[in-house]
Structures are given as C-alpha cells and as structure tokens.
Fold these 4 entries.
Entry 1:
Amino acid sequence: MAKLQEKAVAQIKEICSRYKNEKTPLMMILSDIQNEYGYIPLEVQELVSAETGISVAEIYGVVTFYSFFSLNPKGKYIIGCCLGTACYVKGAQNVIDKFSEILGIKPGQTTSDGLFTLDALRCIGACGIAPAVSISGTVYPKMSVDKVPAIIKELREKEGAL
Amino acid sequence: MSLVNIKIEGIPYQVESGLTILEAARKCGYEIPSLCAFNHGECNQGSCRVCLVEATGARGLVASCVYPVSEGMEIRISTPKAIEARRRSVELLLSNHSKDCQQCDKNGSCELLYVAQLTGAREKAYEGVHSETTLDVLAPALIRDTSKCILCGRCIARCQNAHGLSVLGFENRGFNTIVAPAQNRSFQNSPCIQCGQCVSVCPTGALMEKSEIDKVDDALRSGKHVVIQAAPAVRAAIGEEFGYPVGTPTTGKMIAAMRRLGFERVYDVNFGADLTIMEEGTELLGRIKNGGVLPMITSCSPGWINYAECNYADLLPHVSSCKSPHQMQGAIIKSYWAKQNGYDPKEVFVVSVMPCVAKKFEKDRPMMEHDGIRDVDAVITTRELAKMIRRSGIRYDMLPDEDWDQDIMGDYTGAAVIFGVTGGVMEAALRTVYYKLTGKEYGKITFDEVRGHDAGVREATLDINGTKVSVAIASGMKSAKILLDEIRAGKSKYQFIEIMGCPGGCINGGGQPYIRPVFLPHEDDDILDTYKEKRAKALYSEDERQTLRQSHKNPQVIELYEKFLGEPNSHLAHELLHTHYEGREAFR
C-alpha cells in the first residue's frame, strides 16, 4: 500500500476533526476531501476509517455509491453531459459521444494529460435549455454536436495545450 | 407492554405493539415466507421483498419484516395479489442468480431455494442481463461468490455485531451493487479474520467455507495412514445435522461414524486440549514468577490471532506462544505417535474436524510445521463431516455409541471438553494453575464465575493461596477490543485473559451447523436466542460425567511428558507445541 505524504495526512486528520461533534460525519468529511484533492483513494479511506472508527468497507461503499465522489484523480475540467430525459430526447447522447470521440475517452474517464474528465450526469434541472452541458460549473445551453469541437479547442488554447 | 388489536385473514388477535407484521404473524401461527430478515432484526433491510403482505392503512403491499403492526390493522397474507407478489419477488431474485443448485454446497440448507419452492417461483420467469460476478477463492477458509448473493446484508450486520469490523459492505449502486470487502478485494487481502460468522448467516451459497472434503478423499485413496481428530465443540452440535434437538451431545455416534468412513484412528482433540493447558498453564506461571509480559492472552482461536496480527501487533507479546490444541496434537501424532507405530511421518495424514473455518487458515500458516512436516494436513468443519457421513449412507441414528481410540492419546479430562465454550479454556487453566500453586485440587472443581455462553466481557478475581489472580474473558472481537484497548492504555488489571473469535466461543463457530428456524420445525421459535446455551450445556454435562476433570491428571499426558517431551515448556515442547506471531497490514 502506497504511503500518504505527511502533509496530506495532517490535512485529512484536520478535515476529520472539523466534524468531531457530528453524529454522521462521513458525507461531510468525504465532500471536503473530494473538493480538496479531487479524489479519495483507498489509502485516504483507511486514514478516515482510523480517525472516525467507520469501517473501510462502509466508506468505500459511500464513495462508490455517489457519483460526486471519485476514486481516481479527475481532470482540471470536468465535462458533465446531462443525459436526463429532456436532454436525452434533444440529442444529448450524440453530444456526449462527440466529446468521447474528440477526447478519446469514455464517460467516467480522464484524459492522459489530466485536462479533461467526461461525466454522464442524470437530470441537472436545466431542462429548459436542453441539451445542457456543465463544464466545471459553467453551463453551456442548447448544445449540439457542432459546438463540441470549438469548446474543446477554446479550453485547450486557454491551457496552452495546443 | 401495550397490546394492539389486529386481524390476520379476518381473525382477531391481540399482539404486542412495536412488533413487525412478520413477528406478530409468527406469534399468531403464521409463518410468512421471508428471506432477508434474520434473528429478531439483527438484519432487516426489507430488501428482498419476499415477505410482502396486504395491510390496511398502507399504500400497496408492505414488507412485513420491517412494517410495524398498529391498532386495527387488518393483514392479508393469502390474497392472490400478495401470493403473486411474493412469487414475483423470488423470481426477480432468481433472474440474477447463478442457479447451479445441483452442484451448490448450500443445497439442502439454502433459504432462497426454500422460499422459491414455497412461493412456487418459476426458474425462468424473467430472463435478462446478469450483473458482473466475482468469485473469491484466494482465502484458505472462505469462498465468496457474488453470483449467488441476494444483497440481504445479513453478513454485513453479523460482522459488525460480532466483531465491530464490517469487513463487508455494499459497493457501487443499482444493478452493479455487490457485497464485498473494500475494493472488491479477496478476504485474504482485507482485514477479514476468516472466522466464518458471515458464512453462518448467509441464506444462499454466496458465502461458504472452502471445502476440503476432496483433500480428505485423496488422502484416504492414497494409502496413507489417515488419522482424524475432532474438537470438543463438534460433538455438541453435529447431532443437529441428523435431526437431533439442538444441544444433544452425540459423541459416541460421531466416533462410530468417523470410524466407518475409513479413518485409521479416531482421536479426540481433548488430549491436545489437556496438553495445551499443561503448556499454557506453565507459561502463565512462568510469566507471573519471572516478571514476564502480563496479562497473558490465550491463543487457541485462530480468528482472534488473525485479528491481533492485523489490529494489535504491538500486543502480540501478550499472546501465549502455545499452538492451538489440534495443532499441538497434530505435531505429536506426526512425531511421537508415528514413531510408536513405526510409521514414516510423511506417510501420516492428519484431518481435524473443527467447529471453525479459521482453522483452515491456521493449519496453512508457515510456522505450523516441524522439520518440513505439517502438523495438520486438512481441516473440515462440523458441517463437512456431516456431509461426508450423509453421502456414505450411514444412518446416524442407528449407529452404536463407540469410544475414541485409546492407545496413546485416548485419555482426556473434563477440563478439555469445556474448551469449546467461552470461558472454558480459562476454567480449565485455573483448575491446573490452582493445583500448581497450592499443591492441592480446588475443592468444588468448577470456577462458575468465568462461565457463560455469549459475547460480552466477564471477569473474576480469585484468591489462590494468597496470590490474587485477576482474569477476564471475551468472545467476539467487539468485546475483545475493550480488553485490548485497556492493555494498550496500560490500564489492564488482569493477569490472564481468554479471547475467542466467535461470540460464545467454538460452540458458535463459523463451521457449526446452521441455525435456521425454518429448517428446525421441532425447535422453539426462540432457538436463535437459546442455541448457544444449549450447546454449552452439552459440553458442561460431558465435563461433569468425567472422573478426571483436571488436565494435569490426564495419565496419557503425564506419560507423554515422561517418555517424550520431558516437562512442560521444555526445549522439545517449544519446538513442537509453540509458535510465534507476526503483525501484518489489514489491506495487503
């Protein structure tokens, strides 16, 4: 088992201590860790288990149940394609397929340069602007397959990756 | 206790409030088909939907295992709608089940098959996608086959209740959900202690012991000298497999059956237990006299040893270096016994019958050998022995009562018999330690203070000739943890601690016959509350019947020391009968 860096150990312990008085602190602890590091590997779950007394199997269960949590590092830009009913009938499947094709990854995966993660989302409550795509918090309304290449290009240029 | 008025099938009843419909119906004489619910709510996720009934005041059908009764409620179990719904629930479970019933080891005690027959479920009512499956056969003691898992959660609840461990959990979501150790790892690479408590509650073949019957068959075929030895707790429970009431000791028939299966010698591990007391008692007195590490903790339970190595490596010096009784006896069979019989130890094959699945793991530990000769070659559980007896056409009830082979290791004392119940090793040790310290036998022989049949910490302080000995007993790791944390904090007041892996000790081991009320129609409804006590009684009554009840009085043990080992904790005794432990990571 890989060892965590001392700094990370200290910070995760600090995150656990934030919720010492909560009856059910696990979701809050995991959310903070997810936000801080972008993922929650097994070594971190073991540390949270030691700090909270909650078994690793239970923590692992929570991490794999909620799509918000990730076991692997996520990319800098998280492309969330809504596949809820309204978006789906408006052609969202084609949109996500286009992202897949250009980036060379399947939904749930991250590009090897660490720039993009592609996620398939259920309804994000933006049915009026279907099909909707959310990229790291910015919502792109009424998406179409044609718009996909330009969005990727723009983000890559911004990162100096082209 | 307040009562509520309910009607079942239109007939009025008064039942305690707070009961679930399933429990209330049971008290009124109805056994609603159910599957995931177990042991008074030890597990009731309401997940399998097999126990659906109609109840007034509820929208649609309700899962009777979780729905409470209320005043005026009218319950219908037998309406076509309810019957159809229960059948459909089972059919849906079967649609994602491997259904290889014929070759499944659980066949005969499978609760899914039972409710399938009960509800009339059709095997192929729904054909569809099967979820991805995992078959874990890496661990020496346990097998996990998710293709047979119905996601009831009983195993998760048991692991938590017995050990506070929750090695297993639900993973992923929806159709991809599985029950597994974190990361869907093997039991072998997880904090699992391989006690088998999860096996003893699993309703299907998803969790099973790893059978070694084939290994035993091969040995019997090979022409080797195959010796079988049975642990004390086996005799207290094996009768259940052949229709005897829970708690009926059938020692004589079990011996007769083993002899008919073709084993050259049939020995009682009780001889090894008496030997363990001589070694462990001497080790304890030595530690007290010489300022050694105290409290000393017993080492008979391999589940407990696994737990200690994973979680309390810093306390390993507290654990007695004694091997467990069957390993000791195996080592003696392969050395002294083989020599006495003029056998080459390589041609001797030792089979242990154990109430335990962790013993399968224990016998494979690298240090359980001497000069390259393994102490024990195969471990089968009480259930596996019953299987071997059944397939051989032996009518268990018609067997005569026979006795153990008597030649070199036939004698045993009452002290050894009670090893099978929590507190038993402690009591056996105290009987001998008392004698060693005072030069006389303890008047009333028994130490009732340390007796029990359930999990939970018990303690006692005994005044032995002015020497105060404080002892404590725990079974199940949840209780053990309390004592271990005290030691770690430097606050333990005890000299001697007995720890057993399974709650209640070996009588409730993971290899013992399943306690399933639906398959035990002649037992009381509360059999899940009483079976441990009943099995414990069977052992205590055998102790009372013995003329010799202290290990140091066992004439053949005395002879073994005179002719072979020298004295307890001698150099040779250390080579053959003692071992060592190593800390290891929980997730390897």
Entry 2:
Amino acid sequence: MDVAEAHALVLEKIAYQPGAFYGAPDGLALGAGIFFSNVRQPQFDSNSRRFRTVRGMSYVVTHECDVAQENDRLFNDSVLVCPVIRFEEFFDEVDGQTNLGAFLGNMATRNIPRLVYVPTFGEALPYGGVLYLNRITNTHVSAFGEEGVAPIAAVSATGLREVDSALGNLLMREKSDRRWGVWPRA
Amino acid sequence: MQELINLATNLTLDGMVGSRPAFYAEAPGNYWVARPWPASSLLAKDFEFLHINYPTGMHVLTMAERAALERALWRSVEILDEGFED
C-alpha cells in the first residue's frame, strides 16, 4: 500500500463528504475550528523527558469568546491547540504495521478516540492530516501574531461537528469505572 | 424519547457555551448532540438533536502504533528548543 492508496482507503470510510469539511477562514476571529500554520507550543518528548518548544500546523480548540482580545477580561490569553500530523508523514510511520488497513479504517470511522482524520486541503494538506487529540496543548495568544503564522483553513459546520463530536467522545464518554451519583444533573 | 429530549435540553440550557453543541450520552457508543437552533445562542428558540452512533468496538492502539504516532508527530513540527533540565 502506498500513501495514495491509504488516502483512498480513508476517504472511502469517512462518514461525510470530504468536500464539505472546510469553509473559508477569511474574516473569522481566532477561535475553534481554524487551522493555523507554525503555531508555537510545548510538546513533551518522551525520549528526553523534557517539554520542547515546537511550532507546527495546529487546529484551534478554544472557543473564540474565550480569547477575544477586545474583551478586557481575565484568563483570555491562553489558547488550546491540537497539532496536525500531515497524513503522508503519518503514513510513512505506520506503513508496515500489521493490519494497517484495519488501523486506517478504524481511524477514518473514529474507532480510535484520540485520532481524527481531516481531509485534503490544498498544498497545506495534500493527503489530509490527523488531529492527535491527546496532544492538545496550550499556547499564548501572542503566538498567533508571530511571523509566519497564518490561518490556512477553517472547518465548516460539518467539519466542526466531526471534530466536536470526536472531542465529546474523547473527553465525555462514559467512564469504564463505575461511579456513584447521577449524571447529567437533574 | 421525550425523557431523552428533556435531558438533552436541560443539559444544553445548563452547559451551553455560544452555539457549541452539548452532548448527552445515552449509552456507550450512542450519543445525542443537542445544539441551539438557529445557531446563534442569542436567537435560539429551539434545539436540534443529532443522533450520533459512536463506534462501540474501539481500536486499542498497539505499542508499535503508538510509537509510530509519536514519530509522526515529531516529523510534523519544527523544534525551536530542546527544553530545559530539571
């Protein structure tokens, strides 16, 4: 299997039309659903056991109301971002795994809660990308004003539903361990 | 069904942030999304409910898959500094 075949397999399995995933980023305030290039952020390196400062394409998770700089409010200068792994690099690393087809299919159908496939977007993501939800991290709002940082894509309502439902599943799915009490609140 | 709508509606009213949907887990792998309709929370007079079947047979990543994922992540970013010792 090469990257084009892997990409085709993923597209065959996703539950929405890939062309409906994105909208235009123009005019949108910094906030959830926008992909930015070169976002500065910390990531933990398990080999060196240190947090490294990196920059890379990222998806904004924080709602725009919580980072609106025109609001003179406390706690509005940190932004949650999720790194985006380009699909071709993802494929290079998983190529050769046993049951690769099943692995890719499970990612496309969101059987892997911490991963979300995002479709092709021009030259920035020629085969799409993978949101690694358990690597969501925070950065300062000023990181979005740095040189080379720009909005490159924004999800549509379809795309937002896909990512938000994945986040809901990741963060809010029923615990395996039994808990006392009632949820949701009565 | 009415009980479910009541639960989802209460959850939405209780936890709504802007026009983001609220989630109600009916059962593992079986969720309802309640979101204001029209989309603007200021204008919302109703809710739309979307039923989402999450997969129930989760794929548990193998050690090799997890390691590949980590390597792919580091290939996708530019390292600006190597971090600091304790």
Entry 3:
Amino acid sequence: MVGLRFVLLTLALPVLGSWIRVRSLPLAARIAVYFGTGLFTIVAEMFVLSMLGVRWSFALLLPLPIALVLWRGPLARRHAGRWPARADEPSAPRPASGRSHAILLLALFAIAILTSVVLAAGATSGDFVFFWGVKGQRWAQERTLDYAFTKEPSHYMHPDYPPLVPLYYAWTMLGGDGALDWWGAMLATPLFLLMSTAALWGFARYADIRAADSLAAFFATLYALFYIRNAVAGNAEPPMLFFETLALAALTCWRERPGEHDAIAAIALSGVALTKVEGGVFVALVLLTTWIVRKSAWRIGVLPVLTLTAWLIFGYVHGLTDTYVPRDDLSFAYIGITVKEMIRELSLHLGYTPWIALAIFLFSGRVRAALPYLAASLGFILFLLAIYTRAEPHLEWSAGRTLMTPFLLALFGAVAAQRSSASAPHS
Amino acid sequence: MYGLTVHRLPTITAWLFALAFVVIAAREHLARGGPMLARTISSSSSNNPKSAEETLLLYEHASKTIPRGATITVLKPNNRADDKQVLRVSHGQLPFHRVVPQNTAPDFIITLGGTLDDARYEQIHESPAGTIWKRVRW
C-alpha cells in the first residue's frame, strides 16, 4: 500500500535534520525537532535549486545536510564530549509515571483511529487529489518547481500556495518512476500529528509543566478528531500545524531562559511560512507575540522573514499569483453575517467544549502569561473574518480547517500559563 | 484540599475531554464503516463513494495499460461543466501520460459515464465508471 521509497525518504528526514542542537529534551521531542529540521532543510534546498534553475537530485540535496550532521550532529557532539550523560544534565526531564503512560496511550489511540480512518479513505482531502498531490508529482517528474505547469490557468493549481507540501511529496519520489505514492502522502497526516504531539509533550515535560502529559493527550485527541472531521489527509494543514506546534512549544517551554530554543523556533516558523498562505499571518502574529513577551524577536524573525520574502519574490518573478476567481467580492458590508457564522463555527462542532477545557487549563495556571497568545489567537480570528467577509461567507466550507490554528495559539496560551506556574527548575 | 483540586484540575479536565474526543472519533469512524483497507484513496468520498472508487480504478487501469507518453484526456459527456475538475484529477492519476485539454483530439480519451460520439475513436476498455477510447482514424 505504501511504497518503501516513501517510507525510507520520510524516515531519512529526522536523520538529515539531526544537525540542529537541542537541549535535553525527551527522545520523542528530539525526533520531532530533527524531523522538522530535516524536512525544512531538504525543502529549502529544493526551493533554492529551483530558484537557480537547477534540477534537484540526491547528489545535490544530500551533501549539505550530511555535512551538517557530521559536523554538528549527535555523533559529532558525543565524540567531542559535548553531550553530557542524561543524569548530568541540569534540565533532565522527570521520568514519566504510570498514570502519564495511561493518558499518553489515549493520545496514541486517537492517532491510531486517525490512521485507520485514513486507511479507509475516510479523511481524503479533495484538495489533495485536485492540486497538492498533483503539484508534488509534477514537480518531482520535472525535478524542479515547475512554475509553467503550476501557473497554467486551465490547471487550477493554486499557484500562489507556498511550496513545502508539494516539495515534500517530490522528495519522497526522488529516484522513483514519477508516480506519487498517494497512500504514503495521506498516511503522512497521522505522522505529522504524532510528531506534533511529541513536540508538545516533550517540550512541556522539559519545562517541567505538571500537566504536560494531559495537555499532550488533550491536543492529540482533539486534533485527531479535527483531522478526521475536516478530511485533511494529504493536505497542507497537518504539516503546517506540526510546524506551528513545534514553533510554539519551542517558544513557550523554556527552563533556564526564554529564547533557549530560538533556533528551533526559527526553523519551525520558516516551515510554517513555506506551507500555507495563512502561515505568513501566523508568523507575523507569533513574532509580534514574542516581541511583546520578550521585548525582542529579531533573532527568531530573520530566517522566517527571509524564507517568506524569497517565496514571494519567486512567485512574483515567475507569475505564481492566484488564478482563482472568488464567488463574490470581499466587503466589510457583510461583516455582520460573517461574524454570526464565525461565532457558530467557533463551537468547533463540539458545543464549544474545547474552549471550556481551555479556560480550565488557563485559570489553573497564571492567566497573565497566556494573554499575548490569546491576543494572537484573536488576531488570527480577525484575519479570518477579514478574508471571509462577503455576501455569502460559507464559513462551513473551510472554517473547520482554518480555525485549527487560532485554537492552537490559544492552547499554547494555556501552556504558557501552566509553565509560569510550574515549579522552579531543579539543578 | 482546594489547592490539591486546582493542582489536579487540568489533568482531570484533560482526561475527561480526551476520553470524550476519542469516543466521538471512534464512534464516527465506526458509523462510516470502521477499520478497512480502501481500494482507492477516494473510496469513501462524501459525494458518491462507489462512483469515485470506480473512477479511480478506471484511471488505474488506464495508467497501467495505455502506452506511456501517449496524449490523453478525460471528460464526462453528460456533464461538460466538470471538465476543469476532471482535468485536475487526471493530471494526478495519469502520471505517465500527457494529459491534454478536452478540446483537443488526443491518442486516447476516457469518458466517465456516457459514450463518445466521435467516429475517429474506438472503444478499448469499459468499466462501471466509464470507457477508454483509442484514436484509430485521423
């Protein structure tokens, strides 16, 4: 059902991303960080080669990450004696208890249900069949970001959509026969959720947040349900939410000083910027939030802004602008009806219960620490209102997918609130 | 006592909600047929699962049997308004062929439902989803 090439090239990503230095995170979170870093490294290389007009190949893509891994990877660090044993680490996370394992099993069970739904083709996205998968396959065949095919109006390929997902699919086809592994691409959806959960759980444990296991299980079960109901298998939402989770976890879950995971956050935000159009808005809001929290955000802002700018310039130069004609024009004259529909969609079709749970998480921690993230969440909802406001907003078509991001921002408000009330780091 | 409750509140909340979400997910999955290996990626399409599955199986047959590099197009004779959507799917499902717009006369045509009224083409394969036609006259 899933080809060996897809599996091996996906499993290679955490290895190729292991050049990034991580602190003493639990293994699951380290793998998530390496996976995100590897994916961004490879995709960035493919994008740069496309900008230069050079067709990609293993010979061109592998040397850089391999050199980085040999220079800075775990083996190099161990060899240089810079990787202290776990017991010596000042920030070694607490071992998980039996009760932790039980709730984490619940998280894994939710991801298993999602996997089962994907295998039953019950979460297949139309957009995946119409353009995400098609673009990936075409670019892989041409071994470059084929803008001529992508911008052809009769193809309806949404040329302005950022390229990370099709580039990832193209990577999994490298050296193959030119056909996308459609099942593999869909099964990457539960993998992305697993990696997102690992990131949230591992970083929260690292930060000594008491409710780390509970928050991770809450996240995994809720987002598994979201992914099933919104049928996002093969779409860009799962990788975007993975990068968003990784970025927010890196920013909110610190032990010794804020900013200790800035390199990870910068790479993850760059991944967000290169995955979906609204990713740029997310990046802007997170940078603004970080600036409010820390009074400085330039360190994590450079790479994502550079990445987004490079994509926008590439798109402008090659005519990758949207060819999609909206049903009717945007106008704030319709803001009333749009707000009404938005309020209905904010129930998340679960009777607003996820927000109730979130409020409990918030008020059992230090709410003040959550405020910037809640403001960012509100900012994202306002952005959605601005792009939905038209005579017939039809939020029911896509709000289930787009609202996953502001809910995640609010959830990390709860993480920040819990972190602020966590016990002092042990040394 | 109060402090202990507040301390455990997030954990209790998470347990309850996580359990509820898992139950909802499992129940909805079972209501739609439960665990199975679908024959195609569109076998549980929300609009018309059977038709979507048969269509992808026809694409699969075409992909394996039509000579690589041949020009091909796909259309619904009874619903030409769908031409653009059909062409998008065709680009993905016919990876080894040159998919061309419907207003051309390619080497092969796949009709989804309905027949092709064109003397230049001859039927070479039929399935519940449609028919594959080969151009034999110029």
Entry 4:
Amino acid sequence: MPRYSALSLIKHAITGNRDWPRAWPNPEPKSSYDVIVVGGGGHGLATAYYLAREFGIRNVAVLEKSYIGSGNAGRNTTIVRSNYMLPGATEFYDFSLKLWNNLSHELNYNVMFSPRGQILLAHSPDALDSAARRGNIMRRHGIAARLLSRADMQKLVPHLDYRPTARFPIWGGLMQPTAGTARHDAVVWGYARAAAALGVDIIQNCEVSGFLRDGGRITGVETSRGQIRAGKTGIAVAGHTSRLGEMAGLSLPIESHLLQAFVSEPLKPLLDYVIGFGGHGHFYISQSDKGGMVFGGDLDMYNSYAQRGNLPVVRDVAALGVSLMPCLGRVRLLRHWAGVMDMTMDGSHIIDRTPIDGLYLNAGWCYGGFKATPASGWCFAHLLARDEPDRLAAPFSLDRFRRGAMIDEAGVGPIPKLH
Amino acid sequence: MLRIKCPFCGERDHSEFSYGGDANIIYPDLAASMEAWIEAVYRRENPKGPHRERWQHTDGCRLWLIVERDTLTHEIASVMPANAALASLLDGQSS
C-alpha cells in the first residue's frame, strides 16, 4: 500500500485527485484464519493491527456486520483522557494515551489527535479537594495533572457561568493537559488501512449468526457470508456482546444501555479545552475542528438496543449545557444520536479468555471505549497471541465479579445504569 | 418518550418513573450457594426483544411496577403492580 506523504498529496493534487488508490482492499472471506476478530470497530481493527504488527500473526480476519466504524466507534464524543483513580484503570488508560501520542505517525494516517487538555470542573470546596486528590493520584502514576483556581478557570474558559447567581458556581478545576480529542472515523480508517497493509482481511457486511464447535471448543463462526474457521475467535462487538455471548452459551455481567451524543451547528472558536462536569449531573463538551460543539450526558437509563435516544435526556443535557455555558442557549443543534453501550456491573471493561476454549472476550467498555481503543487492541492482541493477559489487562478479568475484585471507579455497586 | 400506563395513576411519561432493571432476577435464600448469588447479583440475560423489568413510579404513587417492554422497539406490552397481592386485587376489580 503506498505511503501517504506531502509528496503524494502534491502528486494527486496535480492530477486532480482522480486516481487515489483504495485505502484497503475488499477481500472475499477465506475458509479459515488463525484468528478471527468479530467486530470492525476501533477495538476490533486495532486488535487485528497489533496482532499483525506486534505479535506476528497476520492470517487474521476482522468481521463486521455492517460497514467498519458503523457502531460506537462512529458514535462517541471523541474524548481521550486518562484521569482515572483506581489501581489497574490508571495504568491501563495511561498506556492508551502513550499509544495515542504516536498513533498518526505509526499508522501513516492522520487521526487528528489533539491533546488540547481536559478540565474537570469543581463546583464546591469539597469537589476541589476531591479534584486535588484525583490529581495527586494521577501525578503519582506519572500522569500530568494541574489543579486550577477559579481565576485560572476564568482565564482558560471564559464562557462558563461565573456570575454570583450561577446554578453551578465555579470553584476551580482539574486539568489533564495531555488529554484531548481525536477524529473517531480516522482512527477506524487508520487502523483498517494499516492492518490491511500487514495482510489482515477486513470483511464488511458479514454478520456472525453462530459459532462452529468441535467438542467443547469453538473453531470458527457461522456468518451471513458462510462458515469461516479459526484457530481462535475474539469478540469485540460492544453493545451486542450479550447476544454473541448467548450464541456461545455464556452468561455475562453486562446490560445494554443507550448513550446519546449531540453536535451543534459549527461556530467560530469558542472552547479551547474539553470540559467535564460530574457529580450533580453529567455533561461533557468540546469543540470539533469543524467548529461544532460536541457534547453528551447520561445514559437513557433503561435497557435498550435501539440506537436512538429519548427526549428526557435531550432536555437534561440541554439544561446542563446552558447552566454551565449560558452562551449555548442560542446555538442550534445539528444532530443527535445514540449508541448501544455494554454497561458492566462495575463500570470497567473485560479483556479475558472465556470458559469456552478458543473464544476470547473484549467487552464492557461502558462510556469509555473510544479513549481505550489503542490499549484495548494491544491488550486483546496480546491475549489472543499468547493465551494469557498482558499485565495491564489482568485486572480486567471476567471472574473478578466472583472474586470480589471489582474496579468500580464510581463506587455505585452492581447497577450498570449508574456507572 | 416512553409512556407507561401506571395501573394506579394512569398513563404518564417515563421521566416520572425510575428504572429498576431485570424483573426476572429473584434474590436467592441467604443460605444459597455462592454460584446462585453471583448469578443473581452480576449476570444478566440482557435480551434484545421482550424484557420483563421493574419501574418505580417515583413521581406518582411510588409503587413498584412490572413492565413488559421490547428493548429494540421500546413498545410496552403490559404493566402490572410488582406486589402480587395488589395485582390480584386489581384483577378482581376489573373482572
């Protein structure tokens, strides 16, 4: 596959951009592979890429029921951060951020990673203490964190509501200067192109309808494009993990919930940072490179596979947005949509073998899947290649619920909708 | 907006209710095996289609209800009180 470069841009500009080659091929599925990854989102494609690149396994197929990136990879609010507090999560997301830093160069594809900084708002002296504690934990792990005063906030984010009558008075915030956003579709396309260049088959419009078995072992999948055999099968489907689990006979600690996201009409530069608001509600916002305000809030709070959101959450998110940034009141909404989240019983993901031989699981990303894409792919590839979890993935085992070793960042217990 | 027909208050927006999850989960006896408890606390069938679930009418009569709802189309097939005695009392009234 030809490398993208300034030279190739000039060359194709001169010829009117008429003959750019396909970014990746569109192969027919072979009858068997060493590894099949079910799910052509960011995580599945990253898994295939790292399998080929880091672990030398190139006879790999990624099966996607629709087009790649049509699920949650294309439905998130593109935020990348690593301001977690619990052992296991902190290291995992920091590793992910390290991979993000060099991703565009590594993939030879501009994923538009923009580490512009993310600020968690603090609306009371107690919230500021809590932010300081989070910041200290991050710094102990070598993750940059900076506590911001109210005066700092007024300088960095002038459009928040600083009036004495503000519904949520600003006491300060916690900045992770290395966090930011990335272009979600480009991440999918970049991984797909780089994986395909290493020999991975990316097979779209190929829905898995069942598993092939030999005794107790899973030896491949039944799909809408025929049977495909595999030495190992990995599931990275998000939202529909329970359905794949049911086909395999697995009962999983997951509920599917809707999360909505919103984008406004494009505006001139207004917000330089990613802003997060939690505790009294849930709201996060950033401005895309195109100028749209990209924001979201809470789950719709009931089990659903519908990929469309409901109006009470639209109202809540709009109310929070206007409370925090009153100038948003006159901004028009361009689009809103919903994705189906795998919500787990402790709010953390699962990267592990399953009790069934030949079947591996990457699931339960709750709200946080996008930022995890590189580390998730890397760790899942490690698991598929070596048959044992990487040090960073080990805490996120499937049996942690049985062992009482939950990684519950929100501290709310086994109630998926609250994570 | 989902509209839930509360048997006591009539049809209301779902924002008056709070969601209580899968109604097929019954907590086992305290002396039951660890496996039975893990099943009840952590594992969910999470169906795509008809789902029996609990809702509480928090901004109304505050009673717990069992709602049969489709998780793909959001259509509600039935609503009844979670309390079996209340359910049979209502049944008696309607017959």
